């Protein structure tokens, strides 16, 4: 009788353990599945958007499709995990000029506050996707990227961004650049619990740009090639300050005889 009771409780314990383990697996793959379900439902809209984006070379359309699909995946992931960011640099130029992807662009650029990078570190350790991976620069805390190193064995082929959201197969990526609430060349981060009136980012040719916080905040929901993303509060001021006033309305690249060339 004692052996039967012992066997009975062993079975009960085993079934309970199996049940709890099954719940954990289900919960993990449900969120994993939701990530892909959201992407799948919007794939058709990307194909419609592509009809309105010019091409110049045979490789343009596949590249454009990959970039928009990747941006869409990043947007969903950032929203799901409450990651604050805003589109920037060449991607922001595209938004200002044509509310979407520049036909010749080769990557996607976003900015987030450097202090939020630990969120990306935690996310990079999760198996959130079989198609995408997040790589964080191990020296992200060093503001001047000229003092950072490459970690090529770990797939870190970049120093300027704090991180990259990378498609495993195509290697197309979202560059995630840092912004600071102090000027890295002239000040150190304040230990006081107060907001700086300015933010600082690296602009062209590694020059630092310090600008009013209200150019960025409050972040606004906007639609980039019909993909919901976050934009800075005053995108035109960003573009005009970094690239010149002409960049607000005119592209610096044009198609000539099947090639993208600099516009004169």
UniProtKB/TrEMBL annotation:
Record keywords, A-Z:
Membrane, Transmembrane, Transmembrane helix
Q: Please give the organism.
A: Rotaria sordida
Matching entries from InterPro entries are given as: LicD/FKTN/FKRP_NTP_transf (IPR007074), LPS_cholinephosphotransferase (IPR052942)
Q: What is the lineage of its organism?
A: Eukaryota, Metazoa, Spiralia, Gnathifera, Rotifera
Where does the sequence pass through the membrane?
7-26
Q: What is this protein called?
A: LicD/FKTN/FKRP nucleotidyltransferase domain-containing protein
Record Pfam families: LicD (PF04991)
Domain LicD/FKTN/FKRP nucleotidyltransferase, chain residue ranges per copy: 79-193
What's any GO biological process attached to this entry? Answer: glycoprotein metabolic process
